[in-house]
Design a protein that fits this description.
This protein is an alpha+beta fold and 454 residues long. It contains 15 helices and 23 strands. The structure holds one RNA strand of 74 nucleotides.
Length: 454
RNA sequence: GCGGGUGUAGCUCAAUGGUAGAGCGCUAGCCUUCCAAGCUAGCUACGAGGGUUCGAUUCCCUUCACCCGCUCCA
């Protein structure tokens, strides 16, 4: 079992990812993307959007609000199952659900759902319900472990003003099913995609950005007929894997992992796991959700979620194939996959991030061989920056500057020398092969554009 | 929330009851025409509060934060 230390250090040194609230000693499980990291993550999101919206037929993007009517979470089941009354045994440090203890003790005669926390605490005290593990009756007070972050809307702090930060983005796609279908005149099967933040008040420390309380999801919901749903489920498993492979992942570092235990709504579920330094962990999920979500929203909202199929004149609630991937987890996986310590002939080591050129934070670094060439170098910088993210470095030896670019995975370095002044040619050096070729300045844009395509 | 651990420079580490050093990195200058060269100069730290003490980065207490484990995890 490894850990993320090398990636964490590189991240901080080179501007990928910083600890959140760093000057105040941080805040657990929050991280800030720096100047280099934000480019990487944005490029990853753009690549995903390209595959699942731009190049997909019949898929539409949305950007739903983080705040939603609380009834959405009643319908999705989050309100009920995200708020469990928990208490700890002070003796053996195990944690138990107060409602379950009461239900078991009373053999189902008492319904703890109707009790307040105080009533449950009193009940447990009066009936001497003890820890099932160690037998002692020494409990902490009940605390509600709600995985949804809540805040209140308006100036008063009444319970009806309570609103939640969404714990998943999926509901934004479901509640907009009808809006998208009508406005885009979409015909089933079609998809709705979204990239957005979600929030979960999880206790667990997170292994760098692997598990954080705020995270970004990239999701695609495919609405289809029930009798075609398994076909599309398999299709999206393949698409999800192909996308990862196209980003440069090694096939040996990815695997499907089917769920043994399905969630209440799911008909089938499969994850793709990546071999992180901490072991195999979930990177994305493909879930066959049946018509559970739309049916629930129909039930709770009173609005019909059915679709009238123009080909068959049938009216039905579509099935949903959900494909969901964490943008932060993917960024982290890509950093782990790209990280390489390369032994050189002179015995030294260079750290290289072998990003796919399309997602590399900077595409080109401009390196004048000497400082008195900076005027010409600046000219080239201005020219290329109209097309790509370009960085500039004239400090230190040329070798040192190559190393800095290797560490942030810049695929191309352009050096300007005295010949450049005479004939407008530059040396362009490839990050992976370290090969150098001579190019006319006018050829640079085309040459690089071709290489950084996705 | 519980148990354990840790807090000194951007990073990795040191020393010390009399207010701190190194390596790497970074900045500037010199030199230098393609893979972490050299020389010179410079920047930057005892998490916070309180106590003991003539004096605390060092000892004690509290607090804050982080890390590991437990718990939780649609």
């Amino acid at each position: 079992m490894g850990n993320f230390d090398k990636i964490v250090n590189l991240s901080k040194n080179r501007g990928f990812i910083f600890p959140g609230s760093d000057i105040y000693d941080g805040l657990a499980n929050t991280w800030d993307y720096g100047p280099v990291g934000v480019e990487l993550k944005n490029n990853i999101k753009r690549a995903w959007w390209k595959k699942f919206v731009q190049e997909a037929h019949n898929s539409f993007g949305i950007d739903a609000d983080i705040f939603m009517n609380s009834k959405v979470w009643d319908a999705s089941g989050h309100t009920a199952s995200f708020s469990d009354p928990k208490m700890d045994c002070k003796n053996c440090k195990t944690r138990h659900r107060a409602d379950n203890l009461i239900e078991e003790h009373s053999k189902g005669k008492v319904n703890p759902d109707l009790m307040t926390n105080e009533e449950m605490e009193n009940y447990i005290k009066e009936h001497h319900i003890c820890c099932p593990k160690c037998g002692k009756c020494d409990w902490t007070p009940i605390r509600n472990f709600n995985l949804m972050f809540s805040t209140s809307r308006g100036v008063t702090d009444e319970s009806q003003n309570l609103i939640y930060l969404r714990p998943e983005t999926a509901q934004g796609e479901f509640v907009n099913f009808l809006n998208v279908q009508r406005s885009m005149r979409a015909k089933v099967p079609f998809g709705i995609a979204q990239i957005g933040k979600a929030f979960r008040n999880e206790v667990t420390p997170g292994n760098f950005t692997f598990r954080t309380i705020e995270f970004e999801q990239m999701e695609h919901q495919w609405f289809c007929r029930a009798d075609e749903s398994m076909k599309y489920y398999e299709e999206y498993k393949k698409k999800a894997m192909d996308f990862l492979l196209s980003l440069g992942f090694s096939a040996e570092h990815l695997r499907f992992h089917d769920h043994d235990k399905l969630a209440h709504y799911a008909k089938a579920a499969s994850d793709i796991q990546y071999l992180y330094p901490i072991g195999w962990e979930e990177l994305n999920g493909i879930h066959h959700r049946g018509d559970w979500d739309l049916s629930r929203h129909q039930e709770f909202s009173g609005k019909s979620m059915s679709y009238l199929d123009p080909y068959t004149n049938e009216r039905y609630i579509p099935n949903v194939i959900e494909y969901s991937i964490g943008a932060d987890r993917l960024t982290l996986a890509i950093m782990c996959e790209a990280y390489d310590e390369e032994k050189l002939d002179n015995g030294e080591t260079r750290v290289v991030m072998h990003f796919h050129p399309a997602i590399a934070p900077y595409k080109v670094a401009i390196l004048p061989l000497q400082k008195n060439l900076s005027e010409k170098a600046t000219e080239i910088y201005s020219k290329l920056s109209k097309y790509f993210m370009v960085t500039y470095d004239e400090a230190g030896s040329i070798g040192k500057r190559y190393r800095r670019q290797d560490e942030i995975g810049t695929p191309f370095c352009v050096t300007i020398d005295f010949e450049t002044l005479d004939d407008d040619t530059v040396t362009i050096r490839d990050r992976d092969s370290m090969e150098q070729i001579r190019l006319k300045i006018d050829e640079l844009v085309n040459y690089i554009s071709e290489k950084v395509k996705f």
